[in-house]
């Protein structure tokens, strides 16, 4: 009888083991700390490291009881995009221009359509301005003044910097907007001649907007075309500069992209939660604190007295979006008619 009971027990145990093997496996343990790798264009560094990362880490910990960490790298938007296309293990990219996001899509690095997210994937914005030496000794008042003989201009490199491409659109587009306001029609010849004159005075082309700012801070050059927030941060730090607001200038708009090529099922929820967080009121307030303009709540911008007022603002929509702005203006006007004619 003992032998029979042993055999019966053995058969029962084997049956349980066999049936268990047929059941779906338990979900992967996600209790361990997750790490998000973010690549961003240069001027995102301070706000991400000092505000956004710490706030999201605290939020995730409070809601999920687990930790999340960040690894980040910042450079020119074109450089960041090239690095990701070459295989760097990024999970998220914050870029200066939508065209770089499109390059990541075309290169199969991302398959998620960022345009389906809030604000078509744009997380913040900032206008382009001119920085000059304290007291404005060269009497610069607008982009066209940068083309006067003897003015030494610092301008980031359009090959590596998305900010540089925004700057070219700001200079060229400002003349289109002003001519339209003055004469009722856009004058592309006037815009071309202004861009030629300004570019003829460029004495240095650093690799990113942040590198251009650093060079200008050393005392090199008379003027720098850059993001408003760079000027405001320099003034906050006590730099001996003045900020000149052109009559017409562009708002640069900055998209976020998920790098699906590197995404795992375990990591996707925390990465998506981080991306969603960027449009939260808390994150938008952080952007405004560091002189980016909110894209979700204009009252936050109105409550920031340091933000400049622009008479004739415009966006990349003036040129039909980046699908037309890049081939028509960056390539067709700047590369073919300005850069190659120097």
Index terms:
single chain, 342 residues, alpha/beta, 2 domains, ten-stranded mixed β-sheet, 12 helices
SSE layout and pairings?
Layout lengths: L1 H20 L12 E8 L3 H20 L3 E8 L1 H9 L6 E3 L3 H9 L15 E12 L19 E2 L7 H22 L4 H13 L1 E3 L4 H9 L5 E5 H9 L4 E4 L3 E11 L9 H10 L3 H9 L8 H5 L9 E3 L7 H17 L4
Parallel strand pairs: 1-2, 1-3, 5-6, 5-7, 9-10
Antiparallel strand pairs: 3-9, 4-7, 4-8, 4-9
Detailed description of the structure:
By secondary structure, the protein is α/β, with parallel strands linked by helices. It has two domains: 34-124 and 254-289, D-Maltodextrin-Binding Protein, domain 2 (3-Layer(aba) Sandwich); 126-252 and 315-341, D-Maltodextrin-Binding Protein, domain 2, CATH 3.40.190.10. 44% of the residues lie in helices and 17% in strands. It has helices at 2-21, 45-64, 77-85, 98-106, 162-183, 188-200, 209-217, 228-236, 268-277, 281-289, 298-302, 322-338, and strands spanning 34-41, 68-75, 92-94, 122-133, 153-154, 202-204, 223-227, 241-244, 248-258, 312-314. Strands 1, 2, 3, 4, 5, 6, 7, 8, 9 and 10 form a ten-stranded mixed β-sheet that branches.
Produce a short descriptive summary.
The protein is of the alpha/beta class and 342 residues long. Helix content is 44%, strand content 17%. The chain has twelve helices and ten strands.
Please give the CATH architecture of the largest domain: 3-Layer(aba) Sandwich
Helical residue percent? 40-55%
Q: Which fold does the CATH topology of the largest domain refer to?
A: D-Maltodextrin-Binding Protein, domain 2
Oligomer classification: single chain
